[in-house]
């Protein structure tokens, strides 16, 4: 009975999601309990790799893959395709590079509905040579991560991946620091590109929901004459990653990044288990995610130390990269948090 | 510079807060960076006491008190005034009862701007005898916690406390389970009472922001011909306690409950450090709160085990009391989370 009640209450949220879907020119629907256009992208291994130099055990990667398949997740981002010239394979784990044989070692030929994605960083990827033609790869999607000043390069990376036959997304990092005029210019260039989806990325976990809404509105507006989608990638520095993801989807974002137990850099990401609990599309299933979190992801927490924590809250409040917080947390003996706050204010 | 930017972005949120304050018939203001009517109520010891049977060391209670004073917090709720007939003082710590001498042992005569509050539970408090006249107590405010079916008793408790000279609030628990017609009837009775503020209490951490907004709107609407305030007390079962508190304040709630490091039952409360980071009233100061969290509150986490965790997420999703999750977590060896999920679904 309690379940019925909450489903009933939640219907108002869902109806609002429905109304907003008109923004994407989806056919009008009056009474549906979910928006089928919504895609969930699991970033557990890719973003989590920033906490262990991409050195996950193969068993862990396989467990996350199997959980994503069983949970009905749409995409799993398995790592980076970054340069072996810039980053030594001796110093970084395999998920920094995503060699085709390493991916196949986990997924075989991936005969499942789960699509596979990898991320290439602008200026850090030998994308022309390292990204195979899509018919030679089990990857389905290339995601290009870029700061605002790298947009011209990112556009060439999108062109390259598109020509090779991949779905593509452009993940515009540190959206909380981009001046409005540059954002507008970038969006108008992106609207003319081949990219399939453009992400609002709150790299610093600095955005409040209203700011996320304004950015999603701006992105949708700039793309309204195209069939491109808008995505959201939130960080949890202020315990707002899930809340901001919901607000973005209510406004019309259809590509939602999340990770199991929120595993990701610093304060981590939107927890996949929360967004799956919120969405009503019956293809998503919570139970296999819970198993994987309990037995494969949480056991890594003591070593990887991701998740909400005061140093990350402070960098988020100051709209700064979390690296100072990661340094503070990596020290053997924790220093004074109040002093860290003082120092960050001075550096701001 | 980064700081300036975030302050600039945040201004849009704050302006929206300003517009909404018209709901409370506050004088119209065009350009202010904070709403002075907002009151922060610290629940660290009161709600946290539900995780250790109210057995805090005096030094801990003193540290929280001093941090609240230094942080410019408006109220500190120091515990419950519950019945010694129902709850044996041998089995519960002093903050279950809040004897006047115990409070004075911490705060002396409290010659500070911080006001002190205690909570009395409907049907669990000998309020007529145990609550002293306010001129014999250092307490300033009595908060009455009630379920919907106890409203008539709660109204008598409010009358009693008001006549004794206290400020009062009524905290309507488990708002996510109250049928709309009963809620409307309760609000119309409360509008005629002497209570100073009425709280939306999301006891089960089940509400999404839009539902919180709808409840705050309903409460404000029912109270619009009075000068009563609306409050919000959120739980973090879905990592939405802070987000829901912001949404409530944007809609016009002026009494905001929070606790240091979110200490509170189960998944805990809205973290005070996050809401102080968000608000711009210069009377609130983050630094002393950080000190207290680091040295006095966090050291209790391993034993008290509050905070977001999958069992609490599951009870929240099912709109259930967290007690099943607390039992699950108290077991020496954790059972299967997926099985806990199955059992909760069957119980729903």
Number of helices in the DSSP assignment of chain A: 15
Summarize the helix and strand pattern of chain A as letters.
HEHHEHEHEHEHEHEHEHHHHHH
Compute the gyration radius of chain A: what is it? Answer: 19 Å
- What summary fits the major beta sheet of chain A? 8 strands, parallel, barrel
> What is the percentage of strand-forming residues of chain A?
5-15%
Task: Explain what the structure shows.
The structure is a homodimer of 348-residue chains. Chain A is α/β, with parallel strands linked by helices. Chain A has 2 domains: 2-303, Aldolase class I (TIM Barrel, Alpha-Beta Barrel); 310-347, no CATH class. Helix content of chain A is 43%, strand content 12%. Chain A has helices at residues 2-21, 44-48, 58-71, 100-107, 127-130, 151-163, 180-191, 209-222, 241-251, 272-278, 287-297, 301-304, 310-317, 323-330, 337-347; strands at residues 39-42, 75-80, 115-121, 141-146, 167-172, 197-201, 229-233, 255-258. An 8-stranded parallel beta barrel of chain A has the order 1-2-3-4-5-6-7-8, surrounded by 4 helices. In chain A, helix 3 packs antiparallel against helix 11, helix 8 packs parallel to helix 9 and helix 13 (310-317) runs parallel beside helix 15 (337-347). The first copy, chain A, is globular and about 55 Å long. The termini of chain A are far apart. Chains A and B meet through helix 1, helix 8, helix 9, helix 10 and helix 11 of A and helix 1, helix 8, helix 9, helix 10 and helix 11 of B.
């Amino acid at each position: 009975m309690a379940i019925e009640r909450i489903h009933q209450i939640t219907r108002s949220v869902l109806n609002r999601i429905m109304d907003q879907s008109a923004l994407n020119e989806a056919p009008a629907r009056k009474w549906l309990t979910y928006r089928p256009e919504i895609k969930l992208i699991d970033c557990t291994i890719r973003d989590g790799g920033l906490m262990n130099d991409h050195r996950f055990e193969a068993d862990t990667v396989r467990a996350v893959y199997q959980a994503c398949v069983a949970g009905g997740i749409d995409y799993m981002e398995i790592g980076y395709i970054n340069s072996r010239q810039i980053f030594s394979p001796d110093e970084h784990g395999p998920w920094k590079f995503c060699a085709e044989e390493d991916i196949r070692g986990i997924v075989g030929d991936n005969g499942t509905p789960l699509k596979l994605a990898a991320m290439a960083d602008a200026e850090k990827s030998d994308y022309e040579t390292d990204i195979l033609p899509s018919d030679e790869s089990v990857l389905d999607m290339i995601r290009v991560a870029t700061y605002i000043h790298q947009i011209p390069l990112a556009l060439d990376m999108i062109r390259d991946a598109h020509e090779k036959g991949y779905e593509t997304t452009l993940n515009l990092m540190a959206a909380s620091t981009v001046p409005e005029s540059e954002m507008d210019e970038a969006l108008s260039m992106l609207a003319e590109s081949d990219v399939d989806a453009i992400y609002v990325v709150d790299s610093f976990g600095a955005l409040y929901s209203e700011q996320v809404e304004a950015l999603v509105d701006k992105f949708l507006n700039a793309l309204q004459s195209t069939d491109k989608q808008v995505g959201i990638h939130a960080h949890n520095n202020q315990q707002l990653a899930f809340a901001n993801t919901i607000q973005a989807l209510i406004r019309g974002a259809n590509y939602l990044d999340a990770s199991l137990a929120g595993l990701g850099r610093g304060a981590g990401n939107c927890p996949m288990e929360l967004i799956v609990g919120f969405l009503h599309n019956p293809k998503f299933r919570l139970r296999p995610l819970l198993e994987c979190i309990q037995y494969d992801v949480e056991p890594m927490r003591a070593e990887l130390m991701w998740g909400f924590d005061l140093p990350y809250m402070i960098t988020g409040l100051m709209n700064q990269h979390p690296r100072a917080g990661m340094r503070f947390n990596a020290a053997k003996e924790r220093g004074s948090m109040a002093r860290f706050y003082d120092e960050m204010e001075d550096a701001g």
